[in-house]
Amino acid sequence: MSDSAFSSSDHQWMARALQLAELGLWGTRPNPRVGCVLVRDGVLVGQGWHARAGDAHAEVHALRAAGRDASGATAYVTLEPCAHHGRTPPCVDALINAGVAEIVMAMRDPNPAVGGRGRQKLRAAGMIVREGVCKQQAHALNPGFVRRMLAGRPWVRCKLAASLDGRTAMASGESRWITSPAARADVHRWRARSCAIVTGSGTVQADDPALTVRDVPQAADVPPPLRVVLDSSLSTPPDAAVVRAPGPALVLTTRDGGDQRLALQRGGAEVETLPAGPHGLDLEAVLMALGRRLINEVLVEAGPTLAGAFVSAGLVDELILYQAPHLMGHEGRPLLQLPGLERMAQRLPLELLDVRRIGSDIRVLARPRSTQEG
Predict the structure, then answer these.
(1) What is the pLDDT of residues 284-304, one digit of tens each?
(2) 328-353: burial string, b at 16+ Cβ within 10 Å, e else
(3) Does the annotation mark 331 as catalytic?
(4) β-strands 128-131, 102-105: how paired?
(5) Cα Rg, the chain, nearest whole Å
(6) What is the pTM of this model?
(7) pLDDT for 176-193, tens place per residue?
(8) 3-class secondary structure, 318
(9) Strand pairing partners for 368?
(10) Which of 117, 142, 338, 342 has its CA 20 to 30 A from that of 217?
(11) Active site residue: 59, 297, 301, 318, which one?
(12) Quick one: the chain helix, strand, coil %, rounded to 5?
């Protein structure tokens, strides 16, 4: 059904469910972010959201809040209720047992193995099931979960920071700090919602970043994202901050490594060998390997060579660009290393999603026009 087939009340209640789902932005990985409201005779009687993987799902929280008022109610849920046993029992059983009369869901479960089963079981129990209201907004909350279910790999965002003349470092290599404290704080929020943060060994050796999440109160009690170093030559120092910092670290390489591998493992990092590509690691193989680790959303924070390689390979779904109001000169390091383009027809088209001021800087969210949702 299209959005126009739903009433204004349907849109109102699903909008509330989407607001609730967003409260799980930081902690549900690898699960999707889901919200649910229960409405009876036009009155909200229960609501809930999925806050953390392993905890009760949104529907269960809403049913607990509604109690006996759930009987005869309509449930608005942002994702098809689950019909399979995972860490928790199926939500469809809870909805049926509570006597809910109708289910309105924004989108089906994208997992081909389970999608549609919840809807079928609810209808078999005599419940009215409608789907499709605010589908686009529901998808936007879980692009990585959808991508992993359909394609086996995560959704990739590439974060970039540059001066107005497109430079990411001075001619000397100095790069701290290009952007304002407000912009850097905003980056930490993007880190917090990501399942993994990816960088290259060159950035590790040049800048020694920790790639941890800081100053995001909502994510304080959430396991940190996986820190991933792409290192085809296995040259990452075992005492690098990205290895030593609290939380999981993974070094992906094309080599066996011997003693260096053992040193990294003793330092606290996991090391995995993957196929080589034209200029180091095969980036598609990297993303598929992360998908197997249940990684939904990846944030690439790397230098112009690795970031440019992701973009050139068509593997970046969104660009997050912070532009600072200063000039750094033509000899500074460029934003991206891309193949030489001689004709205007070779340009890489972008769709602007959002442009706003963050502190003294401008943040641009853009998506390559070739990116598909699935």
Answers:
(1) 999 999 999 999 999 999 999
(2) beeebbebbeeeeeeeeeeeeebeee
(3) no
(4) parallel
(5) 23
(6) 0.90
(7) 778 899 999 999 999 999
(8) strand
(9) 350
(10) 142
(11) 59
(12) 30, 25, 45
